[in-house]
Every structure is written in C-alpha cells, then in structure tokens.
Amino acid sequence: MKQVKITSELTVYDDFNELPNDIISLMEKAKEARLKAYAPYSKFLVGAAILLDNGEVVIGSNQENASYPSGLCAERTAIYYAGAKFPEAKIIKMAITAGSKSNGTETPIPPCGACRQSIAEYEVKQDLPIEIYFMGTTGKVVKSNSLANLLPLGFDRSFL
Ligand code: THU
User: What's the gap in Å between 6 CA and the centre of ligand 1?
Assistant: First the structure.
C-alpha cells in the first residue's frame, strides 16, 4: 500500500487589472457574454470567451430551459460552438466570469465538473494544454495552466 498525493498549482491575480493585456481583453469578452446569458430561472449569469490558435474568439453564455436539465453552461456553449465552427483550430485560452444577476461576487467561480470534463476532451484531442482563467464579477482572478490541473484522475479516450 502507498499513499499518492495529487497537487494542483494555480496562480491568483488580486485584481483583473493585474492580468496580461490579452487576458484582460479576453475576459472583457467573457463579461459581455455574461450580460447576454439566458438565465431566467437561476438568475446566475455566466460568460465564457475562448481564444483559438487562428486568432478567433468564440463566446458562450449559460442557456437555461424550463426543463432545467436541458439547459447548458456557458463554458460548454462556448467550447461546442468553437468545435462546431472551427473544428481544426486549437483552443489556447479560456476566460470565465460568473455571478448572480442582482449581486456581484468577488469569489472566483470555477467551471462545474461537467464543463471540466467537456473542456478536457478538447485538451486531449488537441494535445495542447488550455489555459483557464476564472473570476466572479469583480476581484481576484484564478489561472490554471491546464484543464487537467482542475480535473485530476480524469476519464479520457485512452481508457476506451
Ligand atoms: N453554470 C455555468 O454556466 N457554468 C458553470 O460552470 C456552473 C453553472 C450555469 C448553469 C445554470 O444556468 C446556472 O449557472 C446556475 O447553476
């Protein structure tokens, strides 16, 4: 028997303005997308923006449904849109911002488990790490150098 320790390393920026310029502009696109989210049930708005290696930026926001499980998170809306529109392009960076409609939050909101699994698929497909930046509506921004770092012991095509 042995113990195995799994560690994740994250970078925390104290403020949006500390981010590199390209990430500020990517996060601004995520913020714009967030304001267009369709979230009449939870009133929790999420926006995501993805930078591709062809220079294109693809955005997504959460899309809810009266049949709740039929809705989709912002991150998956964006990543499936990128996969559908630019199937050959690699995903380099993803910026995410989230918070309720009425109250902002300074707490960085990470992608949910299902979104992590979906993003992981593309990281494996393209064999290139995806940088993820996530925040609330203001305040600190957390960066992970790869999705794998947010989803240890992930399930992928190598097991099939
Ligand atoms: N949501 C996202 O868009 N991304 C996540 O990673 C977590 C949750 C959305 C889904 C739903 O519309 C609302 O936030 C509340 O769960």
Answer: 27
The strands making up 10-13's β-sheet, listed across from edge to edge, are 10-13, 141-144, 131-135, 91-100, 44-52, 57-61
For residue 39, which atom of ligand 1 is closest to its CA?
Answer: 12
pLDDT tens per residue across span 118-155: 999 999 999 999 999 999 999 999 999 999 999 999 99
Distances (CA, A) of 60 to 3, 13, 85, 148: 40, 23, 13, 21
* Architecture category of domain 20-149 in CATH: 3-Layer(aba) Sandwich (3.40)
pTM over 0.90? The answer is yes
Q: Which of 35, 42, 62 to mutate to test the pocket of ligand 1 (most atoms within 8 A of CB)?
A: 62
What is the token pair recorded at 11?
A: 């970078």
